[in-house]
């Protein structure tokens, strides 16, 4: 257990850090502490494939006892990259599937440690709605201005193609998940009308351009747009609306 204070976007944030063991005999302790946690860091050893394979078991425990809590995946011992058994791309894909930020750190070189804790603190503050209490009148740092510009002009799917280091790409993805642009996009995606699990109209504002045709032959209805991209039988949309904040 340790209490520390970090500087996050020009503001001091106090963290209470509980370092639990990954051994199975401490499973009960981990369950009790995860219930009250505001953020969780899952750590594996990049030189030990077994430690990475065991993440799924701990992730299941976390989702059961602390659902929705922000999580960060951390690969330790980056200074031993020449002994690597877990590829960085493999870890990034695993983190993306489970909606986690991803970092590789080196305590020996003091690399990415502060960044991983700051990212988790930022996600926890955003989840609890506390950002509005101290972000309203502050001057945005250069790093966040750059992130906002990139996220606004680039979809999450295109971040991997940018000529940036993997750690920066991972940070941009996690920033996109917690940014206001992400929330706006998700609200827009929720405006889709659904019928039997399939969308009928891309946006409510375009609903007036649609008209129903009496089904013939088979039982499936046919929808046609009076202008623009047509919609096929069964409710399939020609132009799908992509939620730019979902990392696949």
UniProtKB/TrEMBL annotation:
One of its GO terms (biological process) is intracellular signal transduction. Keywords: GTP-binding, Lipoprotein, Magnesium, Metal-binding, Nucleotide-binding, Palmitate, Prenylation. Its cofactor is Mg(2+). SUPFAM superfamilies: P-loop containing nucleoside triphosphate hydrolases (SSF52540), SOCS box-like (SSF158235). Pfam families: Ras (PF00071), SOCS_box (PF07525). Residues 132-178 form the SOCS box domain. One of its GO terms (molecular function) is metal ion binding. InterPro entries: P-loop_NTPase, Small_GTP-bd, Small_GTPase, Small_GTPase_Rab, SOCS_box, SOCS_box-like_dom_sf. Belongs to the small GTPase superfamily. Rab family. NCBIfam families: small_GTP. PANTHER family: LD44762P. This is Putative ras-related protein rab-40c.
């Amino acid at each position: 257990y340790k209490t520390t204070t970090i500087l996050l976007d020009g503001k001091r944030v106090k963290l209470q850090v509980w370092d639990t063991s990954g051994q199975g005999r401490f499973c009960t302790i981990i369950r009790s502490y995860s219930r009250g946690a505001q953020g969780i860091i899952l750590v594996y050893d990049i030189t030990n494939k077994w430690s990475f394979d065991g993440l799924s078991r701990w992730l299941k425990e976390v989702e059961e006892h602390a659902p929705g809590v922000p999580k960060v995946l951390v690969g330790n011992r980056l200074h031993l990259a020449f002994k690597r058994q877990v590829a960085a791309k493999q870890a990034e894909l695993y983190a993306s599937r489970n909606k986690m930020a991803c970092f590789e750190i080196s305590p020996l070189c003091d690399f990415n440690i502060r960044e991983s804790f700051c990212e988790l603190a930022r996600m926890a503050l955003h989840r609890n709605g506390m950002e509005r209490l101290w972000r309203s009148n502050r001057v945005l740092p250069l790093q966040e201005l750059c992130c906002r510009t990139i996220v606004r002009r680039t979809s999450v799917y295109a971040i991997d193609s940018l000529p940036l280091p993997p750690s920066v790409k991972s940070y941009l993805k996690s920033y996109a998940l917690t940014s206001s642009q992400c929330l706006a996009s998700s609200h827009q995606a929720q405006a889709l009308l659904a019928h039997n699990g399939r969308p009928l109209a891309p946006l409510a504002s375009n609903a007036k351009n649609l008209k129903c045709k009496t089904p013939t032959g088979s039982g499936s209805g046919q929808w046609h747009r009076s202008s623009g991209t047509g919609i096929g039988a069964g409710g399939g949309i020609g132009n799908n609306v992509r939620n730019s904040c979902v990392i696949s």
